[in-house]
Structure formats: structure tokens, C-alpha cells
Amino acid sequence: MSDTPFCTIPLPDALQYVSAIHDRCDNRLQEGIVRAQDVDNIRNRALDLIPKDLSVDAVSLEKLRRLCQLWEVDLHVGDISSHRKWIGPVIVQMKKLLFPVIRFFMKDFIREQRDFNAATIQLLAELCNQCSEKGKKGPQ
Fold this sequence. Notes:
Largest sheet: none
Distance between the termini: 20 Å
Order of helices and strands: HHHH
Shape: elongated
Radius of gyration: 21 Å
Helix content: 55-70%
């Protein structure tokens, strides 16, 4: 395991990364990939999921990054189809009509799950950081 901190980006490079991220977000908004509601949701969240003084090995950091990518849950409509020749189109239309109703009733549950996932990632990052700090100090 490496004792190297996870983030040592020089300031000019960091500013370029931030600018690139803003551009990508703007493009995704314009293309309709994300909604303004999603941006507001992220803007209103606490951005301190991972402590600023996090110092973990590369393997743990990669696992935390993966969790950060997966924490967001939502109900997505896949490709709705039916193999039935005559009644299939009716089934497909019924599924398309029912999905918004199901999403409406599940929205509170999904919000609570997102909050739980975010809190879990925060706790895991803190625990990783504590383990890393104890490892640096040696056995006591």
C-alpha cells in the first residue's frame, strides 16, 4: 500500500480540470442528458462527502471513487417491449403509462436511499482515513 496522498494536482492544472468539468456539465444540460432539477439536487447537497485531508492508498481510493459513481439511484425506463403479436402494443402502452405513477410513489424512497448512500460513502471515507492514519503512526 502506498502512503502517497491521493491529490497532488498543481493549481493551474486543477483550474483547467474545473473549467473542463463546467463545460461538460453545461453541454450535458443543453443536450438534455441531465436535467436542471438534477443540477439543483447536487448543488443543494453537502459537498464534503470525503474529507479534504483524506490520505489513503490507491486501492482504497479507487474503491471510494467507484462508490461515488454508484451512490446515485433512480428509476430508469429501459426499452419496453412485448413479444406478443396482437396484445403486445397494448401491454407496452400500459407499462409506459404506469411507470410515471410508480416513479411518483417511489420518489421518497429513492431520495432516502440516495441520502443513505451518501452518508455511507462519507463514513467509509472517514474510516479509510482513520485506518491510514493509524497505519502511519505504527502500532500503539
